[in-house]
Amino acid sequence: MDFRLKFHSVALMAGLLGGCAAGNPAASPGTPLVHGADPIPWSDIESILNPRQRTTLERLKYTGYVVLDGWIEEDGQVRIKRVGQSFPDHARDQLALALARKAVIHTPTSASKINPGVMVYVVYYDNSIEGQIALTFAKRSGFAGSGQSGEHYYLDVVTY
Fold first, then answer.
1. Would you call 139 helix, strand, or coil by DSSP?
2. Starting at the edge strand that comes first in sequence, how are the strands of the sheet with 117-128 ordered?
3. What is residue 150's DSSP assignment?
4. What's the whole-number mean pLDDT along residues 16-21?
5. How far apart are CA 82 and CA 133, in angstroms?
6. Are the C-beta atoms of residues 120 and 103 closer than 8 Å to each other?
7. What tens digit of pLDDT does each residue of 23-46 get?
């Protein structure tokens, strides 16, 4: 596959798996942290994970997210123009911006001078064994291809 799927360390995967075993604290009352009740494209993310990673992700409970939008430069670098949405608050917007700036999507472009748009989703998971985890997923906007073509995606998971 030609997409950028990075898991920074063995400790991270242990943290993801440890987060499943140890569980995460329950969300605050009235906080809807359920797949499908948010703007995160879970089906796209899960389509590029292996079965073990997918199962681990499904078991983790996230505590927040930030959605950003921007464009893809000719060299593949993602540039952010604005924070679109933050949940539950804006406390992690700066961290999301820093993580989004690491994204690279090498995508075929036409001869147009208009750079393709991109949506970046940063999802936060707290209190796992390895510490706090952030999943960064970037997707070329308006791409209508199959979920299996990873050249239009970027996925990275880090502990912070």
1. strand
2. 4-7, 153-159, 131-140, 117-128, 64-72, 78-87
3. G
4. 38
5. 23
6. yes
7. 333 333 333 345 556 899 999 999
